[in-house]
Automatic annotation (TrEMBL), chains A, B:
Residues 15-86 form the Transcription regulator PadR N-terminal domain. Pfam families: PadR (PF03551). This is PadR family transcriptional regulator. InterPro entries: Metal_resp_DNA-bind_regulator (IPR052509), Tscrpt_reg_PadR_N (IPR005149), WH-like_DNA-bd_sf (IPR036388), WH_DNA-bd_sf (IPR036390). Signal peptide: none annotated. It comes from the Bacteria.
DNA sequence: TATTGATACATCATTTATCTATGCATCATA
DNA sequence: TATGATGCATAGATAAATGATGTATCAATA
């Protein structure tokens, strides 16, 4: 797990990317997938994920459908049409941001003002 | 400027990297340097920077020295010995985090569970 | 058969990094 | 003499994520 705050702002694009790749997913599955893909380094908390899912649902970015599997209810979330557009811009922004950070981190010390 | 929250957790390592590269710097100079290096995309607010500088000073990560230049007071901050160690781990963590995000963002859609 | 751990959803209070807004002061310029 | 750039500072607001907690089903095990 990374120091508390780095994750901020990255959860939403990560979620959108996952749904974009895999189609409909349910909460528990999302947590496991992120944990697995990040080699255990990113563990989304339920207290973070469910409010985010509900918010994106309310925004019309996600659509939902409940299915009963082995006596347990799973609530599947998928990208709406609007959500697919949103995903493109969210991922673009994150990648842009990361290159900016990378730029600062890799600037040679000799580059003085 | 990026959407509000992405910056969270990155300000400290960015600051440490800057001081590590350039030695002692003062607040206003730091804001300008980050703005310039990020091509205007990252603008640190004074309300964010000064409390951070004071906190790092209190932690013994930074050392300070005031100089009067052209009638204006500049408060220079530099890494302490402890701060140099801290910088190494902070930058390491940020880079590790970024590769993890990159890993998730670039995973091929065909990689299903 | 009782307990534990995994599965599955949910909410509420707390934390905390950053921003907004504001304040003060000096200097250069128009 | 007003404005913008330089320079430091703080207090209150914002909002994302966490921690803590709750409910319930199912599988494994002791």
């Amino acid at each position: 797990m990374y120091s508390k705050e780095l994750l901020k702002g990255t959860l939403k694009p990560i979620l959108l990317k996952l749904l974009s790749d895999r189609g409909a997913m349910y909460g528990y599955e999302i947590v496991q997938a992120v944990k697995q893909m990040s080699l255990g380094k990113i563990v989304i908390k339920e207290g973070s994920l469910y409010p985010l899912l509900h918010a994106l649902l309310a925004e019309g970015i996600l659509e939902t459908e409940s299915r009963k599997v082995d006596g347990r209810t799973r609530k599947y979330y998928a990208l709406s049409k609007k959500g697919k557009t949103e995903t493109v811009s969210a991922l673009g922004e994150l990648e842009d941001f990361m290159s900016t950070i990378k730029l600062i981190l890799t600037t040679k010390p000799t580059t003085q003002l």
